[in-house]
Amino acid sequence: MDDARTIRDEYKKLIKQGIDPAMERIETKSQKQKEAENTFRVVAEAWLYKRELEQKQDEETVRRLKHDVYPYIGDLTFPQLTLEILEIKVFKRIIERGALSVAKRLKSDLNQIFKSARKKKLIQYNPIEDIELPKPQGGNFAAVTEEQDLVPMLNKIWNYSKLYTRCLLTTQVALKISVLTFQRPGEIRKLKKEYFYREERCFKFTASKTKQLHIVPLSDQAFNLIESIIDMHPYSEYIFVGRDGKTFISDNTINSALKRLGYGGEQTAHGFRATARTMLDEILEQRVDFIEHQLAHKVKDNNGTAYNRTKFLNNRREMMQEWANYLESFLQA
C-alpha cells in the first residue's frame, strides 16, 4: 500500500512538471537499455570480435580481461570509468601482486578498447592515456601468484607435449619439476644424477647462492617424474639432457617453453619460486622459515644463528608433499 502511494505521489509530481508518466517510463527504460548495451564488457567483446574477424590472436588478452577486468568493471558504463576507478579497481590489484608485465599489457589492451569507445562517441576523454605504471625493479621475476591464474597454467604445463609436439620429454619433466620443487633454474637444469638419492627420496647439492649443502625433499609426484627419465641418457651425468644427448638443457629452455604456452610476460622459470613462496604462505599457511629453507635462502634463528639445514627436514618433506597434492588437485578438477 505504501509503495502504491509513493508511486502515485511521484506521478503527481511529474504531471505538475508537465511530464507524461507513461513517456517517462518509456524513456527511462530506453536509457537503461542503452546503458546496458554500452557497458565496458559489451564494447570490449565487440572489439574482440572485430579482431577475431581480422584473424588476430587474442587468447592472452581474453584471459586477462576475464580474470582482471570483467569481474571489477565489466558492468560499468564508460562515463563511470574514471581514472580513479580504473587505478583502484584494475591496476592497483595487479601491481600489488607484483605482476607488472600483466599491468603493462593490460594497459595496452584497455587503451585500444577505450579508443573503440571514443569512436562510438561513448566518451570524449581516454583515461587510460593517463595511467602511470611503476617501473619494474631489478631482481623481479614475473610470476603467477593467484589460484585463478595458476589453474590454466598448470594444465598447459602438464599437457605441454600435446600442445607442442616437438618438445623433449626432459623439457616437459623439467617444467614440472620447476613447479614442484621451485629451486633456482640454474640448479634444476644442471642437476646431476649423483645428486639424486633414491633411498632418501631427495636431491642433495651445494646451493649456488649460499654455497652450503642444500637438501630438497621430493614429493611422490616429483620422485616419480625423476625416476621416469633418469636412465634415459646413460652416457650423460645430467638428469635434464638437451638435444645433443649429453649436456644439460640451456638456460632458456624453460622460459621458451613458457612463452610457447602463452606465459612469456606472466611467468618465468625463476618466477615459480615466487609462485610457491606466496601460495605456501597465504593459502597453505606453511611456516615462513620452512619455506625459506626450501628456497635455499639464508635463515637465522632469534639469536641470529643460521639454522642447521637438516633441522626442519621432516617438516619440509611434509610441506613439499602438501604442495604437490595442492597442485595435483587442480589437474584432477
UniProtKB/TrEMBL annotation:
InterPro entries: DNA_brk_join_enz, Integrase-like_cat_sf, Integrase_catalytic, Integrase_recombinase_N, Phage_int_M, Phage_Integrase. The keyword DNA-binding applies. GO terms for biological process: DNA integration; DNA recombination. Keywords: DNA integration, DNA recombination, DNA-binding. Gene3D superfamilies: 1.10.150.130, Intergrase catalytic core (1.10.443.10). The keyword Nucleotide-binding does not apply. It comes from the Bacteria. Residues 149-320 form the Tyr recombinase domain. One of its GO terms (molecular function) is DNA binding. Belongs to the 'phage' integrase family. This is Tyr recombinase domain-containing protein. It comes from Acinetobacter beijerinckii CIP 110307. The lineage of its organism: Bacteria, Pseudomonadati, Pseudomonadota, Gammaproteobacteria, Moraxellales.
